[in-house]
Design brief:
The complex is a heterodimer of chains A (703) and B (151). Chain A is of the alpha+beta class and 703 residues long. Chain A is built from 14 helices and 27 strands. In chain B, strand 1 and strand 2 form a beta hairpin. The chains are: A alpha+beta (703), B alpha+beta (151). At the A-B interface, helix 12 of A face helix 2, helix 3, helix 4 and helix 5 of B.
């Protein structure tokens, strides 16, 4: 039997219909910052239901890390903020009615750039910052009241001054930052713009109420976080919310936490019937984005190429709502240090509100932004010292037993092998002429702390059912889980069923993010199989908890219970007349530990590289006074079949090693590998994407 | 207005508003969910169907204009179709949302190549599939699958 995806016999959230359901559409703010002062519905037909901000205000706020969002915005904080919801028996009527609602606004002042938002006198996007008490607010959140900073994260390695007062724009102090032994210092500021996930399937959900319980079917990577956030919003116990998650048509971080579900649930409650809310492509662009970020990196080394100290600043543009931006800022902070040894490391990362659409989880989760900066600086240092970039990295890369800047001891690390593999793929000549070639290496954490649980049931005929909260979004999790379970049980994979997550049936799982699921669910399955075998053979439960976490004031602790490790290399050509950059080769080498499903692993790698090529060469969300410029796939291009000819990969396996997730590892190192290759041809790229205009603009001889 | 359409080899009658797009008719009236709306402007290829064997974007084709043409959706492609089998064998999909459109576009290319008695190169396949976007980025394996059938 062929896979059900090929001939469309699998149903996605967007395909879902429920008898008697109505259709909701949203009226969105045309202003980046504005107070709603009047809503005129006199033109709306009588058989259309209208929900306004004042009706949902008693529900209060929500937000996975900062409680800063309302179901409908009485004060709009970005262009596209949902202000009014309408619902009708058919979608066409709802669509038409949404256009007939007249909303009166009082425009407020707005701020868009993450650095501008920190200046004295900048408009405050939110007056106060209420820390969420949900499971996703798992670390100490440090909002700075009276500013646009909703979280700041700091690393200070032992020996550096601790607890100095906060400033949003700290200047380097080479004495305090531990640079005194540095003979050469490189300091540069980089920027990566906002981007759109562009999952081919837009967000779609159906919400309904049954006997006082809320039931939501939606595409989400975070069924249990969504359940908790909705339960708190509607004043219910968690168990009175049911979240069902069919396989998604892609997500890449877009379908996480509360997106459209709260509005659909509120409309459904008002109507007392199920409501479908599905977004158009244009709406996707104002629903969630990748964080634009400015990252400054200061690196000090001895003349013979030993890294002494590193100082990293990240200004992370989270838009109008924090979402999981505080977590992204934290991970951007430590990923920007890179997998190297230093005497001293100091990092300041600020998650900053602006009046842009909210930014949240996006494949690469903060690492993409800071690895771009950090690995470009590694090459700038190599050029300054006159040392081969591969050799400079090799001298400083972490090896087993070294301590990362968080104080944790590294184990099972393979950065050198990965770097060597990537370098070989572009025929790197040690100490020779490597013009047009570049390399990069990175580490990325896995969600820590986290918990995975799984139930395993015999369902007759030698068949088993695995009940797991891991969501399927195309990464092949369901198949990987079936395969792991089958191996452990000693049956064929087709004897194991893995139904989509339904929070009424499956045990708790933190979420399907940070490339953690194959690893964590795999370990939970081992425990479940053991339990099943010990207990009669019909039922087993497995539970795995990874402890850890970082002190957000010092950055010390356990950032990740194991590490995603990757390297990339690129070979490029550039037309000096037009600035057109052509990729001759892009290679990623990732540490897989043990491969569970080779085809799926290769697809995750190729997919990450392809997305990274878009990020590097052309993907950029631009704004004009807070309006997305060209919120469509004509203006916002994503890679096509014509963009992947140069891609190749290595999956590094080690006998007996644990399973490592591969969902993101091959993305962050690709942009700096390409940027470093371009830099050898007389350019100094700091800003992505490397469009022809930007390439010409960063030519070293440009005046 | 009353439309008579030829869908997957069978005549179907539907009563629709004249301004309706073919995609809506296929999904909402005929329950054929393999063509999917994703960009709304005929650029991403997930709504691809074949009109007299040629791939078109059903999200921007007014349904009345599809009369007197044969319409093939993925539901009209048999399970043992060589392209379907090759996509399965090469694991040329991740989330699968774009794959029906890919398969239909590839079938059109391969039919054209068969008529001309030639095998498509990787570049020709990529060119032909350039209007079918896959955000999961399965292009390498998709091209592998199409090339195998075409050789």
């Amino acid at each position: 039997m062929t896979d059900p995806r090929i001939r469309a016999s699998m149903r996605y959230p967007n395909d879902l219909t429920v008898p008697g359901m109505w259709h909701a559409r949203l009226v969105r703010s045309p202003y980046a910052a504005a107070r709603v002062v009047g809503i005129d519905t006199s033109l709306v037909p009588q058989d259309v239901v209208v929900l306004t901000p004042s009706e949902v205000e008693p529900l209060g706020g929500y937000g996975c890390q900062i409680s800063d969002q309302h179901v409908l915005a009485g004060v709009a904080r970005h262009v596209g903020d949902p202000v009014v919801a309408v619902a009708a028996a058919d979608e066409a009527t709802a669509r038409e009615a949404a256009g007939l609602v007249e909303v009166g606004y009082e425009e407020l002042s707005a701020v868009f750039d993450e650095r501008d938002a920190l200046r004295a006198g900048a408009p405050l996007v939110h007056d106060t910052h209420a820390v969420s008490d949900g499971d996703a607010a798992y670390f100490g959140l440090r909002p700075l009241e009276g500013t646009n900073v909703c979280h700041r994260f700091r690393i200070r390695t032992a020996g550096l001054p601790q607890g100095e007062p906060y400033t949003a724009d700290p200047e380097p102090d080479d004495h305090a930052d531990g640079f005194e032994a540095a003979q050469v210092i490189v300091d540069e500021t980089f920027r990566m713009p906002a981007a759109q996930h562009v999952a081919m399937e837009p967000h779609a959900c159906v919400a309904g109420w049954r006997d006082g319980r809320l039931e939501v079917t939606t595409g989400t990577q975070t069924p249990f976080n969504l359940r908790q956030d909705l339960a708190r919003l509607f004043g219910l116990p968690d168990t009175d919310v049911r979240v069902v998650c069919p396989p998604m048509g892609g997500s890449f971080g877009a379908k996480t936490f509360v997106r459209t579900e709260a509005i659909a649930a509120a409309v459904a409650r008002r109507l007392d019937r199920p409501v479908r809310l599905a977004l158009d492509r244009e709406e996707e662009f104002v629903t969630l984005t990748r964080h634009a970020a400015t990252v400054r990196v200061r690196l000090g080394a001895t003349r013979d190429g030993r890294f002494v100290a590193k100082r990293v600043w990240c200004w992370v543009n989270t838009g109008a709502y924090a979402d999981c931006g505080p977590g992204v800022a934290m991970k951007m902070g430590y990923a920007g240090v890179g997998p190297y040894r230093f005497d001293h490391v100091a990092v300041d990362s600020f998650c900053v509100y602006t009046n842009l659409p909210p930014a949240g989880a996006f494949r690469g989760y903060g690492a993409a932004q800071s690895v771009w900066a950090s690995e470009r600086v590694t090459d700038l240092m190599a050029a300054e010292l006159g040392i081969d970039p591969v050799e400079l990295r090799r001298r400083n890369l972490l090896v087993d037993g070294d301590r990362f800047c968080t104080g944790e001891t590294m184990h099972d690390v393979h950065f050198q092998e990965l770097l060597d593999d990537a370098a070989r793929a572009v025929d790197w000549r040690p100490g020779g002429d490597n013009r047009g070639k570049g390399v990069a290496v990175m580490l990325k954490g896995m969600q820590t702390p986290s918990r995975a649980e799984v139930d395993l049931r015999r369902v007759g005929d030698g068949r088993f059912e695995v009940l797991s909260g891991t969501a399927e979004m195309g990464q092949g999790a369901a198949q990987a889980i079936a395969r792991l379970a089958a191996d452990l049980l000693g049956v064929d994979a087709d004897q194991v069923e893995v139904p989509p997550p339904d929070t009424d049936r499956v045990p708790y799982d933190t979420r399907t993010t940070s490339s953690r699921s194959t690893h964590m669910m795999g370990r939970a399955l081992e425990a479940a199989v053991e339990d099943l075998k010990n207990g009669g053979g019909d039922y087993g439960h497995g539970r795995v908890v990874n402890e850890g976490g970082l002190d957000v004031d010092t950055g010390q602790g356990i950032a990740s219970s194991h590490w995603h490790q990757g390297a990339a290399a690129a070979a490029v050509e550039v037309d000096d007349e037009t600035g057109l950059l052509t990729l001759r080769s892009v290679h990623a080498a990732s540490y897989a530990g043990r491969v569970v499903d080779r085809a799926a692993a290769e697809l995750q790698q190729e997919g990450s590289m392809t997305m990274a090529i878009g990020t590097t060469l052309f993907e950029e969300l631009t704004f004009d006074q807070g309006h997305v410029v060209g919120p469509n796939l004509s203006d916002y291009n994503i890679p096509s079949a014509l963009d992947c000819a140069a891609v190749s990969q290595t999956l590094l396996e080690v006998e007996g090693a644990e399973v490592h997730g591969l969902g993101e590892t091959a993305l962050p190192p690709v942009p700096p590998a390409i940027g470093n290759a371009l830099a050898t041809l007389g350019y100094r790229p700091t800003e992505l994407p490397l469009t022809p205009e930007r390439v010409l603009g960063c030519a070293e001889d440009a005046s | 207005m009353n439309l008579l359409l030829q869908v997957n080899g069978a005549p179907v009658q539907v009563d629709v508003e004249p301004g309706v797009m073919l995609l809506e008719v296929l999904r909402d009236r005929l329950g054929l969910l393999g063509a999917r709306g994703a960009c709304g402007v005929g650029l991403c290829g997930t709504c691809t169907v074949l009109l007299d064997g040629e791939p078109i974007s059903s999200c921007i084709l007014l349904a009345p204009l599809a009369q007197s043409h044969t319409i093939t959706t993925i539901e009209g492609v048999p399970d043992d179709d060589p392209v379907v089998r090759a996509f399965d064998r090469h694991h040329a999909f991740q989330c699968g949302y774009c794959i029906p459109g890919m398969v239909l576009t590839a079938r059109s290319l391969l039919a054209e190549c068969a008529r001309a008695r030639r095998s498509p190169s990787r570049e020709q396949i990529a060119e032909s599939l350039g209007g079918n976007l896959c955000r999961c980025g399965c292009y390498v394996k998709i091209i592998d699958a199409v090339q195998e059938v075409g050789s």
